[in-house]
């Protein structure tokens, strides 16, 4: 099972690489930048590829997605409503009870320090809420 998970991770990374290259514009550059920031903030983050073409970053559960649209690159945080956002990066999906998103438009500046703090906080929230693994009992 471990080998299959590693193969899926390699495939997901390759799919994300391909998406970045396929976009070939500011959206690909932004997605690559966001990916780099994620890996800096959460070095053991897992990359997955879901929902017919969406990059997803996970650490003990989903941290966020990296969706690309014509006008925006959207990062949807699975548990964004539970995250402190003192820099007010969240600017989309603000009405929901669970998710929050950041829409980034061409030419917009990103507060990299604040974004990395959100990534790290989301990973820590997942870790804190992860169910502890049961110890196997001796028979």
Task: Write a structural description.
The structure is a single chain. The chain is α+β, with helices and mostly antiparallel strands and 139 residues long. The chain has one domain: Aspartate Aminotransferase, domain 1. Helix content is 40%, strand content 20%. It has three helices and six strands. It has a three-stranded antiparallel β-sheet. Strands 4-5-6 form a three-stranded antiparallel β-sheet, covered by helices on one side. Strand 2 and strand 3 (62-65) form a beta hairpin. Helix 1 packs antiparallel against helix 2. It is globular and about 40 Å long. The two termini are 25 Å apart.
Low-confidence stretches: none
- CATH class reads Alpha Beta
Label the CATH architecture: Alpha-Beta Complex
Series of secondary-structure elements, N-terminal to C-terminal: HHEEEEEEH
Percent of residues in helices comes to 40-55%
What is the percentage of strand-forming residues? Answer: 15-25%
Number of helix segments? Answer: 3
CATH fold group: Aspartate Aminotransferase, domain 1
Distance between the termini: 25 Å
Main β-sheet, spatial strand arrangement:
1-2-3
Gyration radius, to the nearest Å? 16 Å
């Amino acid at each position: 099972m471990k080998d299959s998970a590693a193969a899926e991770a390699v495939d997901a990374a390759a799919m994300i690489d391909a998406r970045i290259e396929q976009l070939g514009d500011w959206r690909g550059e932004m997605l690559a930048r966001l990916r780099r920031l994620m890996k800096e903030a959460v070095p053991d983050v897992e990359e997955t590829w879901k929902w017919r073409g969406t990059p997803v970053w996970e650490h003990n559960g989903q941290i966020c997605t990296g969706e690309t649209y014509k006008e925006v690159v959207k990062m949807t945080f699975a548990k964004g409503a539970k995250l402190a956002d003192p820099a007010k990066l969240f600017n989309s999906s603000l009405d929901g009870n669970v998710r929050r998103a950041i829409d980034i438009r061409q030419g917009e500046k990103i507060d990299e320090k604040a974004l990395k703090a959100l990534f790290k906080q989301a990973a820590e929230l997942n870790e804190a809420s992860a169910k502890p693994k049961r110890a196997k009992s001796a028979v």
